């Protein structure tokens, strides 16, 4: 095992410096995510053609977030019209409500609401109602995972809108639901009209007018309680460090019956099928942590030049198959990751040089679907790291991840002084060292989030 002096204080000070440096560079924003500083969803609105009383536009959503996707039942985009606009017709999407169109006698608009909400159409929509990048049921992949499916578009024909670039007004108050809260959208900004290249690349056409809206995500806006937690174990210590109690919620007694389900309950099947009414809320198995998702990091084997970690993701939610799930983990040894079994891997380097952050996701048709709670409700992988003699150690919890995200949400970690220790380590000293490292970094992270 590592006989060298640990590089912890040095690591901490360099991390601290880096974090401070970065916090001064990035523009302040409440929804700032240090592992994906440029992550956003950009809505682009291209006016393609004038009509008798308005225009036809193609509206596209680009999910530029590295690891946060939108899964079923999908996105919902809303705005408030600036004047008395109406929607004559749509393809590749639809307004959820028509609203009051009683003023119209012969030609009935698709939607007359002042604040329409648009959703995607479902796969299998007839061809004459489709456009490119539509009809995926509102599912939008993460950019790092599947950039081709990280774009969604629909076409809208707008009436009573003005027919020149001087009379058209940009809509206000864009909202993006995914499908719950979490995204905050800025104002629409007129930008240079988009250019479209012909297939052979020899001719470019352009939109009459284009405006962009940027929406950013914040876990704080999305929901107050976390959705995942981390547990730890190692070959060198029998202790299994469980997720902290009440990580995502507490088991309440009689006050809220049905807040969780016992895994061996004979009524399980009926409870699960019964409660389709509110299918967005998770229905979790009763555990001390009450999280829908648990990530277990096991330090499995120590070789001469390598070491091996096993990661298990367990679903405790009876109401959710997690399709296209992903995991982000931060550990200093990811710059020497040698092999990864049965997951896809991509290095994320939000700050250029340092690749200590990895994005992991399932292999298509093999384990990209994390099944509902039960015997099939888990996915596993093993990672082989090459030891870098200057940093590698099993002491002071170095072998455990610094940060873990599941589907873009930060997971609750056990307190560092509870990590499994090497039998010969002096736990008190090690604990205080590690604790000060983590607390300094946590304070910096908190500062960073609130900048
Ligand atoms: C949105 O994300 C893209 C791609 O990462 C980036 O180029 C752009 O600057 C971002 N926009 C804002 C307003 O942050
Ligand atoms: C509107 O069109 C005119 C003439 O094509 C152009 O000069 C002007 O910049 C356009 N304005 C906007 C807001 O796009
Ligand atoms: C847009 O949102 C702002 C702030 O939430 C609100 O004050 C304003 O009334 C809204 N505008 C419209 C047209 O709904
Ligand atoms: C507007 O959004 C599109 C699509 O993301 C992007 O290509 C374009 O550069 C954006 N324009 C500006 C000025 O940000
Ligand atoms: C549930 O309530 C009983 C009595 O009301 C109490 O003894 C027990 O500790 C409670 N359990 C939990 C998990 O709160
Ligand atoms: C999860 O997927 C399985 C198999 O595709 C399906 O039978 C089941 O109904 C799904 N469960 C939920 C809650 O969507
Ligand atoms: C680290 O990042 C560099 C450049 O971004 C990349 O070439 C290299 O493969 C990455 N290393 C690992 C282990 O992913
Ligand atoms: C580990 O990765 C770093 C940065 O990519 C490299 O400088 C170093 O040589 C690697 N160490 C080993 C043992 O491969
Ligand atoms: C294993 O780690 C725990 C801390 O989580 C510690 O209390 C215990 O003493 C360690 N066991 C051995 C054999 O060192």
From TrEMBL:
Q: Give start-end of the signal peptide.
A: 1-31
One annotated GO biological process: plant-type cell wall cellulose biosynthetic process
Instruction: State the UniProt keywords alphabetically.
Output: Glycoprotein, Membrane, Signal, Transmembrane, Transmembrane helix
Q: Which InterPro entries match?
A: COB_C (IPR056900), COBRA_pln (IPR006918)
In terms of Pfam families, this protein maps to: COB_C, COBRA
Q: What's this protein's family per the entry? A: Belongs to the COBRA family.
PANTHER family associated with the record: COBRA-LIKE PROTEIN 1, PROTEIN COBRA
Q: Please state what the protein is called.
A: COBRA-like protein
**Protein species of origin:** Eragrostis curvula
Q: What is the lineage of its organism?
A: Eukaryota, Viridiplantae, Streptophyta, Embryophyta, Tracheophyta
């Amino acid at each position: 095992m590592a006989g060298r002096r640990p590089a912890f204080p040095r690591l901490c000070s360099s991390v601290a410096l880096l974090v401070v440096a970065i916090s001064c560079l990035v523009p302040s924003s409440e929804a700032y995510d240090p592992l994906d500083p440029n992550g956003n969803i950009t809505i682009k609105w291209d006016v393609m053609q004038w009509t008798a009383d308005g225009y036809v536009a193609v509206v596209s959503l680009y999910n530029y977030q590295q690891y946060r996707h939108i899964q079923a039942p999908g996105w919902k985009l809303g705005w408030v019209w600036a004047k008395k606009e109406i929607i004559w017709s749509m393809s590749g999407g639809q307004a959820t409500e028509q609203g009051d169109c009683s003023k119209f006698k012969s030609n009935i608009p698709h939607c007359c609401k002042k604040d329409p909400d648009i959703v995607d159409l479902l796969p299998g929509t007839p061809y004459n109602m489709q456009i490119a990048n539509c009809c995926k049921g509102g599912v939008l992949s993460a950019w790092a995972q599947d950039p081709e499916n990280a774009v969604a578009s629909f076409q809208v024909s707008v009436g009573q809108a003005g027919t020149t670039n001087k009379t058209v007004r940009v809509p206000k108050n864009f909202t993006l639901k995914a499908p719950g809260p979490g995204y905050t959208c800025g104002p629409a900004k007129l930008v240079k009209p988009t250019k479209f290249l012909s297939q052979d690349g020899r001719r470019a056409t352009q939109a009459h007018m284009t405006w962009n809206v940027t929406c950013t995500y914040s876990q704080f806006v999305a929901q107050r309680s976390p959705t995942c937690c981390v547990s730890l174990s190692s070959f060198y210590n029998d202790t299994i460090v469980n997720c902290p109690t009440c990580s995502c919620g507490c088991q309440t007694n009689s006050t809220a019956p049905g807040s969780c389900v016992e895994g061996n309950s004979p009524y399980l099947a009926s409870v699960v099928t019964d409660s389709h009414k509110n299918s967005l809320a998770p229905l979790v198995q009763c555990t001390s942590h009450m999280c829908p998702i648990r990530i277990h990091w096991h330090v499995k084997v120590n070789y001469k030049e390598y070491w091996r970690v096993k990661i298990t993701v367990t679903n405790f939610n009876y109401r959710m198959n997690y399709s296209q799930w992903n995991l982000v983990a931060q550990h200093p040894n990811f710059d020497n990751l040698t092999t990864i079994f049965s997951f896809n891997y991509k290095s994320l380097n939000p700050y250029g040089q340092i690749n200590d952050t990895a994005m992991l996701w399932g292999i298509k048709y093999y384990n990209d679907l994390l099944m509902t709670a039960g015997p099939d409700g888990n996915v596993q992988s093993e990672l082989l790291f090459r030891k870098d003699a200057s940093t590698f150690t099993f002491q002071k919890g170095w072998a455990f991840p610094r940060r873990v995200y599941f589907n873009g949400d930060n997971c609750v970690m056990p307190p560092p002084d509870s990590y499994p220790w090497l039998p010969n380590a002096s736990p008190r000293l090690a604990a205080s060292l590690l604790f000060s490292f983590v607390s300094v970094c946590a304070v910096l992270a908190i500062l960073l989030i609130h900048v």
